[in-house]
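User: I'm writing a tutorial on reading structure tokens. Could you give me a worked example: one chain, its sequence, then its tokens, then a sentence or two explaining what the tokens reveal?
Assistant: Sure. Here is the example chain.
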Amino acid sequence: MLPSSSSADIEGPTTPVNPHPRLSVSFSDKYFNDDDEPEFKITAAGCLGRCLNHIQIIDPNGKTYVAWMCIVTLTLLYNAWVIPLRSTFPYQTPQNRPYWMAFDYLSDAIYIIDMILIQPRVKYLNEGFWVTERMLLTQNYIKNKHFKLDVLSLIPLDFFYLLVGPELVILRLPRLFKTHTFWEFFSLVDRRLANPYTIRITKTFLCMMYLIHLNACAYYAFSIFEGIGSNSFVFSGEGNAYIKCFYFATKTATSIGKNPKPSQELEYIFMTFSWLMGVFVFALLIGQIRDIISTATRSKTEYRKLVDETLEYMRRMNLPQEMQRRVQLWFNYTWETQHTLGKLKRPELIKSISNRF
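And here are its predicted structure tokens:
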């Protein structure tokens, strides 16, 4: 039989407990003394990392993403309007060139932030489920054609400024490859608004104005090619160049008439191209406006048609005037409170009115 042993023999020698224990900290003892305090450094990289942690995943239907797309769209519109303007009209001078270039590279910075930090974090639907894994989001963005367009929009042709000078603003033309953000932004706003017809008309109006802007820039460039004031067709050189060229482009595109008569073959070609572009494009845009307005007033048109058919049916049935008046009041009240009569056709509507009256 084994000899019994006490618990003290089994546990071994005990160590005395320090009555004043030293607190454990996350810093190594060889870098931390009792007389020293830990030094916390705030760096730009650390702040950027903490900011990125807050925008790990971006909801494509959220207000934050819509606001950011608004900023990117305004940047695109700046490039789309200013690049043709500065390439043709003498609005870039050595005195204001630093301001123009500051806005240019600010827009480039917004493009870079959108491509590197925002778009790879936008979640997407796959088989009815939201994908939120960072690696999959980045791969989805890289496979998308928008990534290729974003890369093309940032081609650094500005380095040729060192050879030809900063006056050749046409080198920034690749910035227009980011046009898809314009359509995406208006699509997002269209889905969020309860009454999207105003934003649709605004989008169509912007397209019309931009086409006139391009035609005005082309007319001024053509005037420089032939010589400003050299004949009655080109820009005379008097007054504000952009306003007069924009007025000429508007008359040409809308086929109002009373345009300067061309006198040379190149002028005939330019006017023919301008007329064809104006007739085709404006017919397309005006057709879109008609569709927008007809869609916006479809419910009211159907309401009026149904009211007229119902009242005509009641007259043929020789119903009392008091009954017809009450039915008309019911129509007005229903439209003012609901702005719709539902999907009721005339037979169902007559039955519904009969039950009420």
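What the tokens reveal: The longest strand covers residues 124-126. Residues 157 and 171 are 6 Å apart (CA to CA).
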